Every structure is written in structure tokens, then in C-alpha cells.
Amino acid sequence: MAEVHILTPEGKKQLEEKLNFYKTVKRREVAKKIGAAREFGDLSENSEYDAAKEEQALVEAEISEMEDILLSCQVVSGSPKNKDVIGIGSTVTLYDEEFDEEITYKILGSTESDPANGIISNLSPVGSALMGKQKGEEIVVKSGGADAKYKILAIK
């Protein structure tokens, strides 16, 4: 059974645009590199040719992965229907007891997650612990050998 990828409409559109770019522009760029590398002669000892073929394999793998995601995606609105319960699309402000600080996360599907920018997956340890919770509740997330404790301050 194929994994279901959860995407927002914006995330799906961005992925479709990236796929189109890879199919049209990136493929042509790599084909030109392969053609130019062939002109250097003996392919058995041609590092430029090997590098171009490796890049081609990576581009084709990326295309295949994007196509698979788009075929098995479930598009959800960017904001949850119930603002009182955390779901995909919720923006959640937490109080981190250990570091005595507030943290804000937006919860999206794993395809669109970007932890460095505060966007976490619903499948991540923190994201999955938050799903279905409400303002005021506390969660404990097990990570490594320590438990991280958070209190839910706000849901948008």
C-alpha cells in the first residue's frame, strides 16, 4: 500500500511546478552535459561523462519521487476546520519548560515540513504528540534519553 502524502494546495502547486522544471529544464541541462562529455572521447575513463550520468540518475530519481508523491497525495486545506483542536495546518505556540521559552510551529504533512523554518510534520515526534490536543494541555515528547515537556499556549 502506497504512503499517503498530505499536502496543502500551495504545497501541491509548488511540487507540480518543481516537477515541471525538472522534466523540462533539468533534463535538458543534463542531456547537454552528457553530450558535451561524450565529445571528450573514451567513455570508460571519462569522469565528466560519469558525473553527468550520475546527475541524470539523480534527476530521474527526483522526478520519480515527485510523481509518486503527487499520485498518492491527499490535499488538505492550509487551516484546520476546528480551531480548538490541533490538526494539520494548525499553528501552535508551545511553552518549553526545559528552556523556559515559547516556540511556534506550523504542522503540515511530511512532504512540506521544514523544521528550520518552524514547519513540522504531523508524523514527527512533536507533531504527532500535538495532533488532537487543545489549548492548555501538556504533552511529553520522548527524544533520545530525555523527555521534553511542552504546554500548549495557543492554536491558530
Series of H and E elements: EHHEEEEHEE
In CATH, the architecture of the largest domain is Orthogonal Bundle
Tell me the structural class. Answer: alpha/beta
The proportion of strand residues reads 25-35%
How far apart are the first and last residues' alpha carbons, in Å?
33 Å
The overall pLDDT, averaged over residues, is: 91
Integer-rounded radius of gyration: 21 Å
CATH hierarchy class name of the largest domain? Mainly Alpha
Number of strands: 7
Oligomer: single chain
The name CATH uses for the topology of the largest domain is: Helix Hairpins
Folded structure, characterized:
This protein has 156 residues and is α/β, with parallel strands linked by helices. The chain has two domains: 5-75, Helix Hairpins; 91-155, Transcription elongation factor, GreA/GreB, C-terminal domain (Chitinase A, domain 3), CATH 3.10.50. 39% of the residues lie in helices and 25% in strands. The chain has helices spanning 9-38, 47-71, 125-130, and strands at 5-7, 73-75, 91-96, 101-108, 119-121, 138-143, 146-155. Helix 1 runs antiparallel to helix 2 (47-71). It is elongated.
Give a short summary of the structure.
This protein is of the alpha/beta class and 156 residues long.
